[in-house]
User: Which sequence fits this backbone?
């Protein structure tokens, strides 16, 4: 009887291999052949999961976004006040700013995707969608926190959400090139969120 293959599990296995390759070498270092070798599968297995390299790269971007989301949810559940919208906001920022080695690898991959997105409209569209979702989440959390008196009423939630995304992106680059440490990143995020607090 032929062995059944978990197609989605195989796709995630390959995505992890491609993620590691991009973190180490950039997108140009993540060919289908290299992905197969790193994942320990045949080139044919990769091609059965992804018809093109472009499709594989887009899946890896979505896979990475899911990884970050799961880590953020774990941070929120471990937080002292997991029901606080402001806590959720801070932990979400901590999830997208590299405050540890895992986050640093994700940031390298994210910036590799960003560079490629400048010349790849499909990848740019995926990133825009992810940024739009993040902006919606930040806006919602700020408004909820305002409703509970945890954020100043004069804060424009939508404008602040966009500002936080820009802050996180800038901090990511500074950490990646070695201008700031993980500890400095954590302190910067905490200070940035604390500045929103109400009386």
Assistant:
């Amino acid at each position: 009887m032929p062995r059944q293959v978990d197609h989605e599990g195989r796709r995630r296995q390959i995505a992890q291999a491609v993620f590691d390759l991009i973190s180490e070498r950039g997108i140009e270092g993540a060919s289908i052949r290299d992905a197969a070798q790193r994942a320990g599968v045949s080139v044919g297995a990769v091609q059965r999961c992804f018809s093109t390299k472009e499709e594989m790269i887009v899946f890896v971007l979505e896979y990475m976004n899911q990884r970050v989301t799961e880590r953020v949810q774990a941070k929120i559940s471990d937080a002292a006040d997991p029901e606080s919208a402001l806590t959720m906001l801070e932990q979400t920022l901590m999830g997208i700013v590299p405050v540890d080695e895992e986050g640093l690898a994700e940031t390298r991959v994210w910036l590799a995707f960003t560079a490629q997105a400048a010349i790849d409209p499909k990848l740019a569209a995926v990133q825009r969608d992810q940024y739009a979702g993040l902006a919606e989440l930040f806006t919602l959390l700020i408004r909820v926190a305002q409703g509970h008196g945890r954020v100043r009423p004069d804060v424009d939630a939508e404008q602040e959400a966009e500002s936080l995304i820009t802050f996180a992106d800038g901090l990511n680059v500074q950490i990646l090139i070695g201008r700031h440490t993980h500890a400095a990143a954590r302190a910067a995020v905490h200070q940035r969120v604390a500045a929103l607090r109400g009386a």
Q: What stands out?
A: The radius of gyration is 19 Å. The mean pLDDT is 88. The chain has nine helices and no strands.
